Amino acid sequence: xxxxxxxxxxxxxxxxxxxxxxxxxxxxxxxxxxxxxxxxxxxxxxxxxxxxxxxxxxxxxxxxxxxxxxxxxxxxxxxxxxxxxxxxxxxxxxxxxxxxxxxxxxxxxxxxxxxxxxxxxxxxxxxxxxxxxxxxxxxxxxxxxxxxxxxxxxxxxxxxxxxxxxxxxxxxxxxxxxxxxxxxxxxxxxxxxxxxxxxxxxxxxxxxxxxxxxxxxxxxxxxxxxxxxxxxxxxxxxxxxxxxxxxxxxxxxxxxxxxxxxxxxxxxxxxxxxxxxxxxxxxxxxxxxxxxxxxxxxxxxxxxxxxxxxxxxxxxxxxxxx
Length: 322
Ligand code: TUI
Known about the structure:
Layout: H1 4-8, E1 14-16, H2 25-33, E2 38-41, H3 47-60, E3 65-70, H4 76-85, E4 90-94, H5 99-107, E5 111-116, H6 119-127, E6 133-136, E7 142-143, H7 149-159, E8 164-167, H8 173-181, E9 186-189, H9 191-194, H10 203-211, E10 217-220, E11 228-231, H11 234-245, H12 250-257, H13 260-266, H14 290-314
Parallel strand pairs: 1-9, 2-3, 3-4, 4-5, 5-6, 6-8, 8-9
Antiparallel strand pairs: 7-11, 10-11
Helix pairs in contact: 2-3, 3-4, 8-14, 11-12
Bound molecules: ligand TUI.
């Protein structure tokens, strides 16, 4: 099977998570220049915003990059047209089944890597021509499925013959090493890149990630069919309370949620805004450049391989030092 680095023309098999309103040309080009695959998150944006970010990335890097299409975006059809016109090298998709777009993207020479949250969707997108899949567990931030990364990745790896990229809960070299052990051949990392020096998210958002503990995220919106992992704050508590007391909370949640991600990302309102984050936020303690993060993570992963291989070969009865 082709490696993720060969498939994408990158140095490290790491894809930057597509964080709506956050992952713009600045973050994407920083990750690509550092040897990973930077991603512009199109979220709910319109096609012309996406074109303008693509053109900025082209100015800021000569390395491969990608655009994520969030399939709930009402502008998704037009975004796909722009991606083809601009000859974007790689597309990732999220929050749905991208089946109807795969043939068109492939005909434009674009590599297609859908995010999947189930084995069934992984098989379907492989049949439709996907080049790889990102198997994302519910530890991730933003829109999530049900399965955990630990359970999902090996099952997807057994079910398909294309590379599997693990996502959800990965924030350091230990996570990368673990993903490899589960059958992945690359990783997607979102939450850690939120605090990259090149990430333009508000100061308050970054500080909330850096201060977060393991138990600080919660999933809101399960009752509406659009579950979203966020850091606990006033908005999250209001949505959870609403879901408990109302039989049909969807309309009210929609009202509360409108503009909430933008408010947290751009205006720094981390009280009434939506602070999407993965569970791994508790591990993230400092700002670094994207390059420092990537190099540190892969160095750690390589060291763990050496160390843990000895433990595995020796068996449980022999201690690590023995
Ligand atoms: O897409 C994401 N995460 C996102 S998108 C986003 S923007 C947004 N803003 C407000 C409300 C809702 C979204 C924020 N975070 N991650 C990729 C992902 N996709 N995770 C899980 C899935 C997924 C889930 C179910 C993919 C496919 C799926 O099944 C669809 C089907 O038809 O089988």
